[in-house]
Structure formats: C-alpha cells, structure tokens
Amino acid sequence: xxxxxxxxxxxxxxxxxxxxxxxxxxxxxxxxxxxxxxxxxxxxxxxxxxxxxxxxxxxxxxxxxxxxxxxxxxxxxxxxxxxxxxxxxxxxxxxxxxxxxxxxxxxxxxxxxxxxxxxxxxxxxxxxxxxxxxxxxxxxxxxxxxxxxxxxxxxxxxxxxxxxxxxxxxxxxxxxxxxxxxxxxx
Amino acid sequence: xxxxxxxxxxxxxxxxxxxxxxxxxxxxxxxxxxxxxxxxxxxxxxxxxxxxxxxxxxxxxxxxxxxxxxxxxxxxxxxxxxxxxxxxxxxxxxxxxxxxxxxxxxxxxxxxxxxxxxxxxxxxxxxxxxxxxxxxxxxxxxxxxxxxxxxxxxxxxxxxxxxxxxxxxxxxxxxxxxxxxxxxxx
DNA sequence: GTCTATAGATCGATAGAC
DNA sequence: GTCTATCGATCTATAGAC
Lengths: 186, 186
Hints:
By secondary structure, chain A is mostly helical. Chain A is built from nine helices and no strands. The longest helix of chain A is centred in the middle third of the chain and has 26 residues, at 51-76.
C-alpha cells in the first residue's frame, strides 16, 4: 500500500458525504479521519481552520458543481425548456430521489446557518435567479416567474425532507414530476 | 426565590426550542441545563434515558399539539375549507414565518433520523392523511388528493428551508399563500 | 505530507449529600 | 427533587518525529 499523497480537492467529495450523513456537529474529526483515511494532522494541514474551513470548501465546490451543470444552462442555454428538464433530471440523481440530503438545506435548518449564512444564501439565490431567467425565457410572465421559481426550488427541498421522513423515494420523484409540470409554459 | 419543583411537562417547550435551535448533537446537556435552569442530575431524574428520551417526549408533545389544532380539524371539522384555512394560519404562526425551524423536518435531515424514524414518519403521515381527507371533502378528486396533500406538506417544509437560507420570511409567507390557493376546490 | 501522542476542553452520564 | 462533584469517553486542535 503506497503512501498516498492526497490532494485537497480529492477530499472534498468524501467530506461532503460525511457532512451530509452526520451534519456539522455530528461529523467529528475522528469520523472524518476514518472516512478520508487521513490522520488529524493531515486534515489540519489541508484545512488549518478545521471543520469550519472544510465546510466552506465543500460548499464552494457544491456551488461550482451546480453552477456548471444547472445554473449556467438555466441562464443561457439556447433551449431553456431543455435546461429546465435537465435540471429536474440532474437534481433527482444528485439527491438520489430524496435518499441523499441536500447539505445546503440541512445546514440552513441547523445552528450552523449563522456561521455559513453567506454561502447558504448565495446557493439558493443563484438557483432561484437562474431558474427565474429560464422560466421567463420559456414564456412565463415576468411578474410571476420569481414566485414560481421559489415555489420550485423550495418544493425540491421540501421533497427531500418529506421523502426522507416518510422513507419513500417515490414521493420525492412524484413531487418533482409535479413541479416540472408547473414549470412548463402556460 | 423559592426552590421550584419542576414538572416534567413544563420542561418540554424549553427542550423543544433548544433542540430546534441547536439540533440533536448541538444541544448539549450543559446547554439544556442552562436553558431549563436545572442541573444535570434533575434532568436525568425526569428523563433517565438522557437526550434521546427528551427528544422522544418533545416529539410526542409536538404530535399531540398538531393533532389537536391541525390534524383533527382537518379530519372531522364540519367545515373542511375553514380547517384548511386554519391550518395555514396556525402553521405560519407556529413556524414564525420560517424563522423557526420545524424540529421534525430538521431531525429528518439529520443522522438522528434513524433513531427517531418512527415518530418522524408518524408526524408527516398523520399530516398528509388528515389533509388528504380535508381536500377530498372540499371537492378535490380522490385520485389526486393524496398527491396534492404531499405537495402542500412538503411545500411547507421547503418554505422553511428556503426562507431560513435566504433570510426572507416574506418568501415563506408568499409560498404558503400559493399553497393555500392550490388547496381550494377546483 | 503524514503520522502518533497528547493537550485541554467538553461531552453524556452517575453518585451521593441535602 | 435538586444540587455539586466527578467519572471516563470523546471532542477539537496542536506539537513534533519521521
């Protein structure tokens, strides 16, 4: 077993999953060390700020991921209807039909919200704005597009909560089908 | 200041608020002791099972609270339309327009979900079933009533997430107005 | 860059005095 | 029924060897 020279960026997906599964307080450094296969010393080498810096890095990567695959297409794809359809597909996969928690949403409900407030607000603000843009381009009246966009982004978050509580991934998928329907032009 | 003889039930609202604000892991016994004004010894006198038993008790009280004020009226009030309207009003107050977290929803997104799974499932199942009943009685076709009910209950949870992340209580209220509109008979 | 060892604080939980 | 004192475990974070 050769000594691995870890890259900071390679740790981010593992860190993200650990925070998703255990939350900010629940994800202890020992747990993170086990999950990443690194010692605490190594973790502090990459993230001198400790857990807080890890979460910041994870949130930045999540935002970049959504920016590339969801937000940017919604904003400027030549075919806004296709971008919206792609969004629902991407999100269903990403959240594993509600089996996987949205880290941004979960942090928003925790007391970590105050610490990471700016990143959390940015993520949802970007999403709502990008979707509003696509809804407008697809023919929705500009007066109602922001409200509809908030309904949909909020609806997705609620679908995660409900599907996880009821332990019914089908519920997540059905709600998303319904939201997709509402996103169609009138 | 006379020595207070605490009643177990009197502690529940304080415990609920503490868990709402700090989550299951974040609400330490020291924090709970400070919030309730009791020592750890007293807390273990009332809740021999520690934090887990406190959360169970809080969840039971929350369910009873909603049963009396929301679920029962939805199920059997003579005026189902009024019960639905009352539900939206009660919920808006209860969640402080999204400033206050739904403890059941927050626990569903945390790793405490597995420990308290049954209580979390019960709460949302009762809500969805009761609202389905009211929607049917108000004239919605039975085939679509369950789906609409899930949309609404999930939508409320999502509204809490989004409003907290964006720090915009108005967003919570606007989403609830929209959901209330969809609950009207066709 | 990674590790072990460990500091210092805090955790959940218990014991015993009153 | 409430308190203080305290246990052992675990926590975040650091130090220093390699």
